[in-house]
Amino acid sequence: MTARKSYGAIAKIFHWLIFLLLAAQYAVGSIMPHIGRGTRNEGWVNWHLSIGAAILFVILLRLIWRLLFPVALPAGMTGWETMLARATHLILYALVLVMTLLGWAAANARGWDVKLFGAVTLPALAPNGSDWGHEAGDIHNVLVYVLLGFIILHVAGALYHYFILRDRVLQRMLPADGAS
User: Fold this and answer.
1) Burial class (CB in 10 A: 0-12, 13-18, 19+), 96
2) Is 32 exposed, middle or buried (0-12, 13-18, 19+ CB in 10 A)?
3) Residues 74-86 pLDDT 10s
4) 154 and 18 in contact (C-beta within 8 Å)?
5) Cβ neighbours, 10 Å, residue 75
6) For residue 180, which of 82, 171, 83 has the smallest C-alpha distance?
7) Are strands 120-121 and 115-116 parallel, antiparallel or unpaired?
8) Which pTM does this prediction carry?
9) Beta strands, E only, the chain
10) Cα 137 from Cα 104, distance rounded (Å)
11) pLDDT at 36
């Protein structure tokens, strides 16, 4: 399978959809009530679970698409740039996957169902009341900040390519780029 030089429309849609879902998730996560003993799965908490399930669904589709239709890193990148780009993308995928799974397990440990698009109930990852499900929620809460750090690194890398190197790395993921 040969890698293309630029991202196609489907890859771009997945990228920007994940961006929008993560932005919504961070917004909802910041305004929803603290989840404590008596917290119920309603309102912002329910939205948080629903968006999380959508993120998991879309990130899995995006990962499959990326494996089926790889895009080469631009020629001329130095060794450290290549290593950092690959590591950052891998860690971003891993963090999003792990965080959604940990949040799902934490919800199940509280006795809450997680539904995809509000209709499809996902199977429980953790039994109601389980200690490991509670720990999953604690780890999820810490990884929120780790993921945010890697998102900032990803954006900084794109801006570095655009403003400092003045190459087309950023444009490859913008909707208007028609290069192949």
Assistant:
1) buried
2) middle
3) 888 899 999 999 9
4) no
5) 7
6) 171
7) antiparallel
8) 0.92
9) 115-116, 120-121
10) 9
11) 84
The residue extents of the domains of the chain are 9-173
CA-to-CA distance for 114 and 124, rounded, in angstroms?
Answer: 8
SS3 content of the chain, % helix, strand, coil (to 5): 65, 5, 30
Q: Which residue(s) pair with 71 in the sheet? A: 4
By percentage, how much of the chain surpasses pLDDT 90? 77
pLDDT (tens digit per residue) in 88-133: 999 999 999 999 999 999 999 999 999 998 899 999 999 999 999 9
Place of tokens 């109601």: 128
pLDDT of residue 177: 62
9-173: CATH number: 1.20.950
Place of tokens 């009530």: 33
Dig out the tokens for 44 from the structure: 């912002």
CA pair distance 62, 69, nearest whole angstrom: 10
Terminal-to-terminal C-alpha distance of the chain? 16
Contact criterion met (CB below 8 Å) for 48 and 41: no
Asked if residues 56 and 104 have their Cβ atoms less than 8 Å apart, the reply is yes
Give how far Cα 56 sits from Cα of 73, 74, 115, Å: 25, 28, 11
Type of residue found at 68: L
